[in-house]
Amino acid sequence: AKFFELLNEYIDGNRNKLRQGTLKQLKALKSHLQRYESYRKAKIQLELIDNSFLTGFVNYLVEEVKLANNSSNSVLKRLKTFLNHLYTEGYLLDQKYKNVKPLTTARQNEKDIVCLSHDELEILRHYDLSNNTRLDRVRDLYVLGCSTGLRVSDLTRLSPKHVVDDFIEITTQKDNEKLTIPLNYLSRGILDKYDYQIPQISSQKFNKYLKELAALCEFNTPVVKIYDHGNKRTEKVFAKHELLSSHSMRKTFISLGSRFGMKIEIVMKIVGHSSYEQTKRYQDIDKEDLAKEMKVWDQPMMRAS
Q1: How many CB atoms lie within 10 A of CB 47?
Q2: Which of 45-52's residues contact partners 24+ apart within 8 Å by CB, and which partners?
Q3: How far is CA 165 from CA 94, 162, 182, in A?
Q4: HEC string of 70-85?
Q5: What percent of the chain has a predicted confidence (pLDDT) above 70?
Q6: First CA to last CA across the chain, in angstroms?
Q7: Global pTM value
Q8: Are 245 and 210 in contact (CB under 8 A)?
Q9: In angstroms, rounded to a whole number, what is the distance separating the alpha carbons of residues 38 and 183?
């Protein structure tokens, strides 16, 4: 069998098993591989897939496609998963490709996602949107996510059947996790406003409108993002509103919940994390908290002076 025939069969065979996001990544992998085949002017042959092939492909992604290391690593991960399938099915005789390591990335162990501080969330909540129904709905959806820890894909599925005795009870779309989330002042108010039928919106439009809303709220704090391309590292400065997305809802919930005094094991249970390592990646400690903790140095040092 030919390489791309097997890749097409793999994508088609998983069409009803994998999430849409994963299928989209597989299609992107196929496009990258087709362009790589044209670039090297040689057909991809199963018997020639080894360390050298994968290393060359990754170098192509970095040097020719200009992908950042974390994006290249994502493509590499999908390719290795497909190659594991080919090995299991007997199309590959060995797993030499496994020796190719991911590229080094900045903040390798952290989710580099911005979130809102308490003050920023209050500015967002009270911003006058009486003449803008579109952004008012996006604001409500965002605040609901920040006060429940739910992803936008689960928020837009909420209906009266998911609310039982002042708790949201829902099975997540992403990983089939059953969550039980107590309502609070913010979430209860928004659900009541919409009679427990949340407005529908695509993730793409939600993220686009959220950035527009954050710009109106003047969330302009500079945020430095680090990009790795091969062994070169560059920094780029963004205004915070440019980076705000649906991912920031969970991080805001985890960070503010922890700051308000929620026990970390309760936060983990609400968002569906099985380990503290997962939750820690989303925790954000702001400058006020850092300064408050640093004051423990003041009295002992002042007494010693």
Answers
A1: 8
A2: 45/3, 46/1, 46/3, 46/6, 46/86, 46/91, 46/92, 47/93, 49/83, 49/92, 49/97, 50/96, 50/97, 51/96, 51/97, 51/99, 51/100
A3: 55, 10, 9
A4: HHHHHHHHHHHHHHHH
A5: 93
A6: 79
A7: 0.71
A8: yes
A9: 55
The dihedral of CA 114, 120, 123, 125: what is its sign? positive
Q: What is the DSSP string of 161-209?
A: GGEETTEEEEE-TTT--EEEEE--HHHHHHHHHTTT-PPP--HHHHHHH
Point out which residues pair with 182 in neighbouring strands: 167
**279-287 — which CB contacts under 8 Å span 24+ positions?**
279/254, 281/109, 281/110, 281/111, 282/111, 282/113, 282/115, 282/250, 282/251, 282/254, 282/255, 283/251, 283/254, 283/255, 283/258, 284/115, 284/251, 284/254, 284/255, 285/255, 286/117, 286/255, 286/259
42 is written with which tokens?
């040689």
Q: Which residue stretches of the chain are H helix?
A: 3-13, 20-40, 51-63, 69-88, 118-126, 133-148, 152-155, 185-193, 203-216, 240-243, 247-260, 264-271, 276-280, 287-294, 298-304
Q: For residue 51, what are its two tokens?
A: 């360390």
Q: Which pair of tokens denotes residue 221?
A: 């704090």
Q: How confident is the model at residue 33 (pLDDT cuts 50, 70, 90)?
A: very high
Which among 14, 18, 29 has a CA at the least distance from the CA of 73? Answer: 29
**Under 8 Å between Cβ of 228 and 105:** yes
| Placement of tokens 């290391």 in the chain | 69
- Give residue-wise pLDDT tens across range 53-95: 999 999 999 989 988 888 899 999 999 999 999 999 999 988 8
Where do we find the tokens 């959220």? 210
Give 171's strand partners.
178
Torsion of CA 108, 74, 102, 63, to 10 degrees: -110
Q: What pLDDT, in 10s, does the model give residues 168-194?
A: 999 998 888 899 999 999 999 999 999
